# Entry
Amino acid sequence: MITKYKNRYLLIESSEATSPMKNALQISNAIKKEIGEIGYSIASPKIMLQFNESVFIMRVNRGHEGDIILALSFIKKLDGKSIGLYSIKVSGTIRKLLDFCSNAYKTA
Amino acid sequence: MRYADIVRFNADDALFKRLGFSKALVEGTDIAIASKMPGPQIPSIIRSENPGTIISAIRESSVAGAIFAGFELNKNAIEKIADSDKILFIPASEIIDERTDRNYAAAKARKIAVAAHKLKAKVRIVSLASSKEQLLSRVQLDELSRFITKGNSIIELLKVDEI
# Structure
């Protein structure tokens, strides 16, 4: 019987504008460097959508979001630039994260 | 539960709210981090490699807690911190720093946390970030504390009313 793969969605904000969809490979390589190939394939992180230049949503296999959150804490350089990646929120649905984003990132 | 963080630079309050903190204590404005006996003006944290300095400073009422510079363990100092009901701080920025050996720093921090837990001292993790790149969210500090203590919840986040 095929089991359903359950996911969690992480809302991630970066300290600088990173264009996460363009730099997805670099972010993946940085995560792979921290948690290894095996950890990466078990967690299977994938950037789902970009809210703005510095905020994006990443999908992770349920139960392994802690590894990805920790890996993001250790990533301090991306594309040669100093950067901070903050895991703001974890949710089971993208909708909840988008609702949070529209409240938290309101432009004046 | 309302959590606080201690940082070394001024940043946007809205950023700290998004990171999951009710309050950010800025060094120099809200809190002082001193290597010698601090003044009584604002709450302060004593940070030193010398356990004698920590033991003598921790008795002051204005001192909220201590940081062991270089994560050097000293059980006498931890006992004094526990007796005076002060806080032992673990700076997260010194563990995640690229220039340090993270596993070694985490192992040393773990030894301190375990010793403090056995002596019933309060241990709290704070980011002590000098720049935006070193900042961590509440969720990340939680994961880091679990990483340091191998899954045990010995190190907690700093609560707003503790300082």
About this structure: The mean pLDDT of chain A is 90.
